[in-house]
Amino acid sequence: MPTTPVHSSQFIRLLDERLREVAENKYADLPKYRDMFYRMLPSDSAFEEFYEVGSLQDIPEFNGKVTYLGVAPGYHVQIEHKEFSAGTAIERKLIDDKKYNVMDDRAAGLMESADRTMDKYAVNIFNGAFSAAFDFMTTEEGLALCSNSHTTKAGTSTSSGFDNLATGALNKTNLAAARLQMRLFRNDISERINVGDDLALVVPDALADTAYEIVGTPNGLYTAELTKNMHYQRYEVIPCLRLDDDDTNNWFLVWKSQMKKDLVWSDRIKPEITTHIDKETFNVKTIVYFRFSYGRLGWRWILGSQVS
User: Fold this and answer.
1) Inside any domain, residue 2
2) pLDDT of 140-167, one tens digit each?
3) Pick from 4, 13, 52, 61: CA 20 to 30 A from residue 306's CA?
């Protein structure tokens, strides 16, 4: 990728007014996913820290003396903002002599690039769901978002309800199993929680038709008997095109309202543009700078299927 100033010799055709048409940035970018998946969290610090306090056990029968219940600590999460910056430099002579109004608004181009950069990171919460390597955060639990071995500090059993990892391909049988697996999730003291009905399928574009077919068929899905399809309109389907860049088989079942609580995004410094003329070279330089971070505070909002 070019990193040196743009010279007129590289774009000599822009000096020729006989050209019929010159195109610039003619393709639309992909949809934005940050607002869809994350809770926006203001920040004025270098990093943000989060901590959980555990749940209380059941109330015992009163035997003449009050029983005081203990509370186990949860896990600590720290999310640190990172800096991003890039610029463009264009030879003054090219700007003076070119015959077309391209390259006039490099600031807009840098803003588009910054927005695309952030959105790629936003989707990493899914693309990296099966890895314990994180972009911006450290978590005391130290496990992947989707894991079959989640833990607790409460000392209770984790043999059931602490597994949000599946491996089956997307079909009606595996989706039904995933939903039941989610509904068995337990809290930090191994008590059942009420997973909501506001569930969504987050899928790569390659699986979108499969997902829509499962959710949109009222009767007779894969059967000749026209039996009722219990998946019909049960889930929202969210095709996420950036997932295809990493894997076209993995899919995710998410609890939307809890997702918006557990996924946090901070624009520490929104993209800022500066433009100046270099006094020695007369190159016109435009620079963008921004800071942001994202992370997750819990895992019970999602079940991910890592399909081999």
Assistant:
1) no
2) 999 999 999 999 999 999 999 999 999 9
3) 52
Domain span including residue 90: 31-56+72-305
Say how many domains are in the chain. Answer: 1
Q: What is the DSSP letter of 82?
A: E
Q: Which amino acid is it at 86?
A: A
Return the number of other C-beta atoms located less than 10 Å from residue 182's C-beta: 22
Find, among 85, 125, 144, the residue nearest to 292 by Cα.
85
pLDDT tens for 237-249 read: 999 999 999 999 9
Q: Which amino acid is at 210?
A: T
Assess whether pLDDT exceeds 50 at residue 183.
yes
pLDDT at 46 over 70: yes
Is residue 22 one of the residues assigned to a domain?
A: no
- Residues 210, 228: Cα–Cα separation, whole Å: 18
CA atoms of 29 and 165, how far apart (whole Å)? 32
> Distance between CA atoms of 166 and 306, rounded to whole angstroms?
6
- Cβ atoms < 10 Å from Cβ of 121: 19
Give CA–CA dist 300/22, Å, rounded.
51
Residue 292 vs residues 85, 115, 169, 226, 236: alpha-carbon distances, Å: 12, 11, 34, 51, 29
Rounded to 5 degrees, φ, ψ at 287 are: -130, 140
Element (H, E) at 127: helix 106-127
**According to the model, what pLDDT value does residue 17 have?**
46
DSSP bridge partners of 264: 39, 295
